[in-house]
Design brief:
about 90 residues; alpha+beta
């Protein structure tokens, strides 16, 4: 599904114009991104939770150059699917 198809579905289901659906989508995603950037987790009931996690720096070996390198620490995003979504995906 493309972004345009996603916005069209939102527009049809909510009976909003495409511009309003686009603004709603932008606000939702923007709010989630702001919270995650601030280090907070976000839970959307029935969908799942997003949580920023800090990965520690580590030493790796590069077999091509035969040297050890340090990979700096970084923040990653962890997603955990909700039970309701997991059940819906695994319906038989």
């Amino acid at each position: 599904m493309t972004n345009t198809e996603f916005l069209e579905k939102i527009s049809q289901k909510t009976r909003l114009e495409m511009g309003a659906a686009k603004e709603l989508s932008s606000l939702l995603i923007g709010t989630v991104l702001e919270e995650i950037a601030d280090g907070n987790s976000v839970t959307i009931q029935g969908f799942g939770s997003f949580e920023p996690r800090e990965k520690a720096s580590r030493r790796i070996y590069n077999p091509t150059s035969k040297i050890y390198m340090v990979v700096p620490s970084k923040t990653t995003l962890n997603y955990k699917m909700s039970g309701a979504l997991k059940t819906q995906l695994n319906k038989e």
